[in-house]
Input
Amino acid sequence: MFRCQMCSKVAGAGIKAMRVTVVSRPKEYRGTVEEFPRRRFGRFRETRKPRDRGGKGHEIVKELMVCASCGAAHREKQAAIEAAAVAAAEAAEAVAEATESDAEAPALVDE
Ligand SMILES: [Zn+2]
Output
């Protein structure tokens, strides 16, 4: 039993909540730069520590617990936004390609 954070209706017992990401941001982890421990010989040889290589991705800033219908609606909206963004990126790329030949010439006449 929970209250949907989008429509603020109470969902009945036994209904599972959906978690919806509302805000996310790009995140990069540097990882550790520590040296490997010196190798020791003998019975209690130290094993190599796994090195943390860090990584890159997106982290969640805000998440909502919503009911199934709100979750589905949000997913549809998100898909539409994503499709629009992809279309816009493709259009921008086409424009950039068209103007690329014109943009190269004035760069040489800068001085
Ligand atoms: Zn809801």
